[in-house]
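Sample entry as discussed:
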Amino acid sequence: MMIFEKTLANRQSYKPLLLLADEDDAILNSYIEQGDLYEVRMNEDIVGVALFIPIDEQTIELKNIALRPTYRGQGIAKEMIRQSELTFKAQGYTRMIIGTANSSINNIALYQKLGFRMYDIQRDFFNAYKKVIVEQGIQAVDLWMFEKLLK
């Protein structure tokens, strides 16, 4: 059974997981202490993490979501996002946004399956990263932003 709940633990202890989704240590450090951090546990093992940062009174951003590789492809990320939608809707948020690299084909598919729609492209976003990121033979260059209204 999956347990998804907010944690107040030392955020630095979650860094190895968070770095799976955002590979640049300096960029991760720029936001790791912001917002609310949620962990996902299965059988008492922490298998995933999600960091949410308020943008304004209506908008919450899913800034980072990561699962241990052995737990991917099992619907856990979908369930994490669904539960977060309910949590933040109950807190009065009406919109959730998520950004991902143009090269993150699996993430792009997941977000669209969950009803998110693209609304912006931040060109050359990944030029600020120290290392070049390549996924499925595609270089990460632009940040694609997706949104979903929480109805």
